[in-house]
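Need tokens for this chain, all 329 residues.
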Amino acid sequence: MIEEIKNKKIKNILFVAEGGIGKVIASTAVVKRLAEELPDKRIIVVTGYPDIFLYNPHIYKVFNFGNPLYFYDDYVTPESYVIKLEPYTNYGYMFDNRHLIDVWCKMIGIESKGSLPQMFFMDNELEASKLYVEKITGKGKKKFVMLQWIGGIVPQSKDKMAVFDTLMRMHKRSLPINVAQKVANKLISRNYTVGVVQHENFPDIQGAERMFFSNTPVRGVIALLKYAEGFIGIDSFLQHAGVVFNKKGVVVWGGTHPKKLGYEMNKNLTREACKHPFCHRPDSFVFDANPNTGIWNCPYNTKCMEYDADEIISAYEEVIKDEKKTQKS
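Here are the structure tokens for all 329 residues:
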């Protein structure tokens, strides 16, 4: 692929970044490598989350799937090369535990060279985030930590049945709400302000600040990480966004694998609780269903996500302690 793109008649690379917020954030690392390998080409990104690429110096333009005005007329020409790949179904990703970014780059024909996600913010964006964090922490009287306990497909409503149905259709990666509430309670008792990152249709965590990214720009939520002590998350977009600000945290893993989607800078907690750990089921991208109900149901009752709140808090305190030692040295 890379040799075809290097052809002198190719002036534009049309990079299609499909998937959720986390995958799109990860794709910024791939775009960076493309720009480094092909500095004479213009990179045009098409994605469902164009604000992830705002102010990115490696791209020429970004378009939203929902409104790619004049995109086809202006860019789908013999001078353009379309890169639209699905790394989730690549053999290296599925069976060799290779990282998403490495696989994506290899499919294009370039090396990842340790490239990590990037986002670029204006000073006024960061200032707004700083002022908000000061407001909810009493100007630093409390420490600020971000928590993402659930993610993925958004329920149609806040109704319990709608949430249950959504969770059944996703690969197993979300914490039980009772564990998430205990984690929040323990942090609050330790003088933390807890910012919960989730869609507003998911159940609320009581006592925490609600950061609903349904009615807040994703950039605004991510920018808050700069002023957080750290984060506690699952395999969802917050752990990818943490890399942007080199913000370390704890990530709990269930049906997905930290070697494929995580980052070594974080404390990655795993549970190999069955014969087929990290199964990525039922949302496996290669068709997955149960003959009785149509939805695959974990025969081990999702034991891979049975984490104890004390274990998570202990891991987080260890991360922060190690980070403070690193900063002093």
